[in-house]
Amino acid sequence: MSVDLRTRYLGLELPHPIVASASPLTGSIDSLKRLQAAGVAAVVLPSLFEEQIVHDEMAAHHLMLQGADLSPEAHGFFPEMQNFPTGPDAYLALIGDAKKALSVPVIASLNGCTPGGWTGIARKIEDAGADAIELNVYFLAASVDDTSAAVEQRYIELVESVAKQVRIPVAVKVPPYFSAMANMASRLSNAGASGLVLFNRFLQPDIDLEELDVAPHLVLSTSDELRLALRWIAILRGRVGASLAATGGAHTADDVTKLLLAGADCVMLASSLLIKGPAHITTLVSGLQAWMTERDYVSVAQLKGSLSQQSCPDPSAFERANYMKTLKSYTSEFV
Ligand SMILES: Cc1cc2nc3c(=O)[nH]c(=O)nc-3n(C[C@H](O)[C@H](O)[C@H](O)COP(=O)(O)O)c2cc1C
Questions:
Q1: Does residue 247 line the site of ligand 1, with CB under 6 A?
Q2: Is 46 near ligand 1, meaning CB less than 6 Å away?
Q3: What is the CATH number of the domain that holds 96?
Q4: Is the CB of 21 inside a 6 Å radius of any atom of ligand 1?
Q5: How far is the CA of 272 from the centre of ligand 1 (A)?
Q6: Is 22 within the bounds of a domain?
Q7: Which residues span the domain enclosing 296?
Q8: Residue/partner pairs of 230-233 with CB below 8 Å, 24 or more apart
Q9: Ligand 1 atom with minimal separation from the 199 CA
């Protein structure tokens, strides 16, 4: 019996749920082609950062002012600001080249945290041919004056600001640290997010005991990290309009299957592809197919969300109730 692996994410029809998340693997046409050859359903390009956009604009502005200072007539030799190649042209070129080279959907990624003019790049990203935009709001509220209400409002404004400029769908990659995650997810969806990517993984700084210095440390994920997205996807399935992508800790076909059962529309991978290479996609797709065949599932649509909080036999398992039971059931040779 054949299994129908198709799924929809951001309104895009995908042949199966495995998507390459933003990482160096999606940053060049060569590796994008390798991902497509391995059967990836869609790709998310590495992020274009607010800092890159703002830096480019400031550099161009500076150049213009410098030139204009040399002589009053010189100003006329400088093109108007809007015609000046201030934007991160290399990124827009990557989108264009990726669209030419690939038949799978290409999702661009914008990474920033302050409301402002830099979000105007969204329209250029759409014009460059991207099928969707993933907005990664990488903001750490480190000031004692930052209130949670203000931080939440910042997210909402950024999503509104990007979404209103484009016709293509906008997904938001969010951190798991909101005090009221479900409410925030619903507000982001209402603000124009067609998809939620759960979750953004902040790089955590580490202390180097030799150098007595603080340095960020990029550690790839393991399957242990999966459960954070698993819980929230299960809780949010059926409760928000936005489609749901899982990112963080998906390494095996079992991981992918669990996330789909919880209610993910697609599963994004970075670490496992960086460790095992693009060919791993084939293993995951056939592993998912085999699991479904064994249990008589006919489609991903049938599987998706069948263990979400709304559908599972014990909804409290996703909330606090099992906390006490789980702690009490823990055993060790020392207790
Ligand atoms: C080397 C590396 C580079 C990454 N670059 C980006 C990026 O540019 N933008 C982004 O939103 N996420 C980026 N990520 C995060 C991944 O897209 C992904 O969300 C995260 O690694 C969790 O998924 P995983 O467990 O499959 O690795 C990067 C991750 C790694 C390991």
A1: yes
A2: yes
A3: 3.20.20.70
A4: yes
A5: 11
A6: yes
A7: 7-328
A8: 230/258, 230/259, 230/262, 231/262, 231/318, 232/176, 232/181, 232/185, 232/198, 232/199, 233/198, 233/259, 233/262, 233/263, 233/264, 233/308
A9: 19
